[in-house]
Amino acid sequence: xxxxxxxxxxxxxxxxxxxxxxxxxxxxxxxxxxxxxxxxxxxxxxxxxxxxxxxxxxxxxxxxxxxxxxxxxxxxxxxxxxxxxxxxxxxxxxxxxxxxxxxxxxxxxxxxxxx
Length: 115
Prior knowledge:
The protein is mainly β. It is 0% helix and 55% strand. It is built from no helices and 11 strands. Strands 2, 4, 5, 6, 9, 10 and 11 form a 7-stranded mixed beta sheet that branches. The chain starts with a strand and ends with a strand.
């Protein structure tokens, strides 16, 4: 069973930066695709960014130029560097990984951005 654990969330003022981490219980070479998603109160969960095993990335338009997704295969960890944070970035952020057998979610980490 794959377990994913997010960390790094917190309270930040607008314009600040945070780095989220997603640690996997298995080698992330096994996870062909990984991604960050977020869900604000009363809204549907939405894609933030994805990264493949080969390092190809994809971003939601709302975070392009501000957020950077990366993965450290040696540490079995994926990251989301969030810069120039805005109040509308306030959400619970979830990581997800996919292998040949299915998808796996982390438990989420809260990010709150104050104006």
